[in-house]
Amino acid sequence: MKSFLLTICALIMLTANVHAEVPFADKFIPWSEHRDELGDEYTLKHYGKAIREIVPQAVVVHWTAMGTAESVWKYFSAEEMTDDEGRLNVASQFIVDRDGTIYRLMPETNLARHAIGYNHCAIGIENVGGYDGNEDLTDAQLAANVRLIKYLHAKYPTIKYVFGHYQQDAARASGLYIELVPDYYAVKTDPGKIFMRGLREQLESDGLTFYDE
C-alpha cells in the first residue's frame, strides 16, 4: 500500500512538473472545416497532397513587422486572404509578445501558412516587432523563444533545425524545402541576424542545426 501511494505521488509530481514547464498560454484562432478545406487547396497546389497535420522537423522564427499581439491574432483569425497562390490566410502556431508572453494559436501539429516551402514540416514562431525592418526584438522575447524551442524540441524529437525566415535559402540544405509552384518566393529579413545569433548561442548545444547569420 505504501509503495502504491508513493507511486501515485510520484506521478502527480511528474504531471505537475510537466505542466509547469509549458511556457505558453493557449489563445487559439478560430478553426473550421472551411479553414481545413482552404489548407487542403493550398497544400495540394504547393506540396502535391492535402496536409492538415505536420510532423514537426523545423522551427522557423519570424517577426510580425506590424501591430500588437492582439492585432496580429485578429489578422491571423481570418480564414481567407487574397493571394494568387492560395486562399488560406497566413498564420503561425505561436506569437511572442514584447514582454515575452507566449501565446499558442493552434495545436503545434496543425499546418499553418508562414514560410514558403516549409509549412508542411515547420512550426512558426511570430515575434511582435521588426517595425520598418528594425532589429528591435527584446531580450524578453529572446528568452521566451529559447524556452519555447527547448520545450518543442523535447516534445518533438523530430525537430532538427531552427532558422530565421531570412535564412530560407540556406535552410534548403536540410532537404526539407518543397515548392511545386515555379517562382513562388518572397525575400525576407525577419527576425534579424542579432536575434538568430542569440538563439544559436543558447540552443545549438541542444543538438539543433542552425545556419550562419
What does this structure look like?
The chain is an alpha/beta fold. The protein has a single domain, classed as Lysozyme-like (3-Layer(aba) Sandwich), CATH 3.40.80.10. Helices cover 34% and strands 11% of the residues. Helix 4 packs across helix 5 (193-203).
* Uncertain residue segments: 1-20
Q: Bin the helical content.
A: 25-40%
By secondary-structure content and strand pairing, the structural class works out as alpha/beta
From the alpha carbons, calculate the radius of gyration and give it in angstroms.
18 Å
What summary fits the major beta sheet? 6 strands, mixed
Q: In percent, how much strand structure appears in the residues?
A: 5-15%
Distance between the termini: 58 Å
Q: Using the alpha-carbon principal axes, give the shape.
A: globular
Report the CATH topology name. Answer: Lysozyme-like
